[in-house]
Amino acid sequence: MSNSLTNTARLLGAGLRALLVLTLVTGVVYPLVITGIAQGLFPDKANGSEIKADGKVVGSSLIGQSYNLPLKEGQKAPEPDLKWFQGRPTGGLGTNSVNTRYKLLLSGATNLAADNKELIKQVEAAKAAVVEDNSVPGYTVKPSQVPADAVTSSASGLDPDISPRYADLQVHRVAARNGLPAAEVQKIVDEHTEGRTLGFIGEPRVNVLELNIALKDLVAKSR
Fold first, then answer.
1. pTM recorded for the entire structure
2. Residues 26 and 60 occupy one common structural domain
């Protein structure tokens, strides 16, 4: 009996020592080492790829933001503020009490099939809105000009980028809303268009937050 208690105590002591060592190694030492390496080699990415404007952090280059008008009394869905470049639609996992535009507690695709009637209806409505919103005097958008990313959400629903085609399509509307020459707005779009990563990964893209910060500066200079 005494021998059994001694063995149990010895095993318990060994287990507690192992727990303490593993806790220190995996819970303290390892995180500190990795954090130090990340801060030393990739400080921007390690801190969330923050974007600053006027000395303040205004968002992350990895997460999209909405550019909407304040809700009016009795209004359930906000309207886009069309003086800004707009990002992709954000279906995510659907709109409900926890999932709203760019405020997703969960993220993911809708998983609707390409021939799903609900998805087709959403895409058609989005395309009609893009055509209407971006058609201004002297520039009419054709349905055939609307790219896929203008009417569909990304898999996560948090895509911060749009295609150069979608950015170009919005130039005349943004210029008209802000009283700017279209050529100047097109110039900042071109300046913020990134090519494929390493020259062959992904597609050319435009970060909407960075583009709108440049637009804000352009509007301030024109005043």
1. 0.79
2. no
Q: Among 174, 171, 151, which residue's Cα sits nearest to residue 87?
A: 151
* Alpha helices (H) in the chain, listed in sequence order: 2-24, 30-41, 43-46, 117-134, 164-178, 182-191, 208-222
Alpha-carbon distance of 154 to 202, in angstroms, equals 14
Q: Are residues 102 and 205 in the same domain?
A: yes
Question: Structural domain of residue 27, as residue ranges?
Answer: 2-44
Would the CA dihedral through 159, 66, 50, 107 be positive or negative?
Answer: negative
Looking at the fold, whether 142 and 102 belong to one and the same domain comes out as yes
Is the C-alpha dihedral spanning 59, 190, 169, 124 positive or negative? negative
* pLDDT single digits (tens) 68-103: 888 888 877 788 999 999 999 876 544 444 445 555
Total structural domains in the chain?
2
Token readout for 112 is 């609707």
Residue 214 to residue 51: CA distance in whole angstroms? 12
> How many whole angstroms separate alpha carbon 176 and alpha carbon 134?
10
